[in-house]
Design a protein that fits this description.
The structure is a single chain. This protein is of the alpha/beta class. It is built from eleven helices and 19 strands. The chain starts with a strand and ends with a strand.
């Protein structure tokens, strides 16, 4: 029996998961999303084109490969339909290769409305949500009120929908009114269900475990990043699902002993979009330069991403929670222009120097301690193996690897599929 391998983000999302999943997918029989929803934006670049996926797994462009949207995902049929239409226009035949779990939860139009009303109500304290309805949908899931994909097959689906909608309309009364065209949103929503019904809906826990028993290789694709995890992230500035390896067990129905490789992805620096603590953030020209060079603007919302240096205590924390077996470092090319680069090696707070994160990064005044490294100041464009990297880049990576304690097995040197060094 094969084990299920996992790829997930070790920072605050946007580490380049889409690119790496697409690259590795050829070695697998199935790619499966296990949590999150259309708040994700995974970018793939190949053949001169760029594609952004939100709900669809990043294995969809590879032939002879199944893609599964697992039970842990929350799905908005409207954004999903839009994504599928884009795929159709790009000539991708997904009809027999894209499966959806009956146990995945549905994002209703009123979930999006609640998300927006709640954020507006929070004012300055807002999470900076993508406003895709993620929080309210997971609240209904854990509150045991949600609607699931499998419910669309039920004869009284409309009644179930109306009951939940009515409840949401009552809830909305606690917030100041905001504009929302429910009638149009509802019409689009019901129309989009037709697309969903055409896809194979599966009991995904059997689907996944049967595939494993039959010797198939599965890659689980994380969304968001570990620092946005509902339990271990910078709460309350987090998303509403478990973005860590444990989420694979609950989001796909696989047992812990079936987890194989855990590939943790980190940028060679660090970004965050939305509000919340970010110890190594550079609110200066250097941060601006990272944003410009890295083209750090959200793939889902277009918002500028906050930028800073790589943070070793933060990475060691998320590697611990995830049981990372190897690291993939992306966007190292973004550092090409810097004379000098830096990494936070320790934190200082409460009168001590430590590599441990405090209980609450929001309430603790953490001072990161940086170590500087000489930059390489040259292009990495045509480099396909580690030995050919400039000596400064190798020294930087070697030292990071030592501090992280796990091998850096992949190094990404550009957004395109082929720009990858595999060691
Ligand atoms: P994801 O959410 O983790 O899949 O990441 P996003 O797609 O949101 O953001 C990553 C961005 O960086 C995308 O625009 C990618 O095309 C781009 N990207 C990925 N890897 C690299 C890399 O190694 N170098 C550069 N310059 N860009 C990269
Ligand atoms: P991918 O998969 C980066 C952030 C939002 C916000 C917080 C909560 O592309 O890495 P939500 O919409 O979930 O209620 O937002 O989480 N966020 C992401 N940031 N990448 C993502 O996904 C994100 N998904 C959510 O910006 O701060
Ligand atoms: Mg993204």
């Amino acid at each position: 029996m094969h084990k299920i391998d996992v790829i997930l983000g070790l920072q605050w999302g946007d580490e380049g998961k889409g690119k790496i999943v697409d690259y590795l997918a050829t070695g697998y029989d199935m790619v499966a999303r296990f949590q999150g929803g259309p708040n994700a934006g995974h970018t793939l670049k190949f053949g001169g084109n760029k594609y952004v996926l939100h709900t669809v797994p990043s294995g969809i462009f590879r032939e002879n490969l199944n893609n599964l949207i697992g039970n842990g995902v929350v799905l908005d049929p409207v954004t999903f339909q839009r994504e599928l239409r884009n795929l159709e226009q790009s000539g991708v035949d997904f009809s027999r290769r894209l499966f959806v779990s009956r146990k995945a939860h549905l994002i209703l139009p009123t979930h999006r409305w609640l998300d927006a009303a709640s954020e507006a109500h929070k004012g300055k304290a807002k999470i900076g949500s993508t406003l895709k309805g993620i929080g309210p949908t997971y609240m209904d899931k854990t509150g045991r009120n949600g609607l699931r994909i499998g419910d669309v097959e039920s004869p009284n689906f409309r009644e179930q929908y109306e009951a939940l909608k009515t409840k949401h309309l009552e809830l909305l009364k606690i917030y100041a009114p905001i504009d929302f065209d429910l009638e149009t949103a509802e019409q689009d929503w019901f129309e989009s269900l037709a697309t969903l019904r055409k896809l194979p809906l599966v009991d995904s826990e059997y689907f996944v475990n049967d595939a494993l028993s039959n010797g198939k290789k599965i890659l689980a694709e994380g969304a968001q990043g570990s620092m946005l995890d509902i339990d271990f992230g910078t709460y309350p500035f987090v998303t509403s699902s478990n973005t860590v390896t444990a989420g694979v067990c609950t989001g796909l129905g696989v047992a812990p002993q079936k987890i194989g490789r855990v590939i943790g992805i980190t940028k060679a620096y660090c970004t965050r979009v939305g509000s919340g603590p970010f110890p190594t953030e550079l609110d200066n020209e250097t941060g601006e330069l990272l944003r410009k060079e890295g083209m750090e603007f959200g793939a889902t919302t277009g918002r500028p991403r906050r930028c800073g240096w790589i943070d070793i205590p933060q990475l060691r924390y998320t590697m611990l929670i995830n049981g990372v077996t190897e690291i993939c470092m992306t966007k190292i090319d973004v550092l090409n222009i810097f004379e000098e680069i830096a990494a936070a090696t320790h934190y200082q707070y409460g009168g001590k120097t430590t590599i441990q994160l405090p209980f609450d990064l929001c309430q603790t005044d953490v001072k990161p301690l940086f170590k500087n490294y000489k930059g390489w100041n040259s292009s990495l464009d045509d480099i396909r193996n580690f030995e050919n990297l400039p000596s400064e880049a190798r020294a930087y990576l070697d030292e990071l690897e030592q501090m992280l304690g796990v091998p850096i097995k992949m190094i990404s040197t550009g957004p395109e599929r082929e720009k990858l060094i595999v060691r």
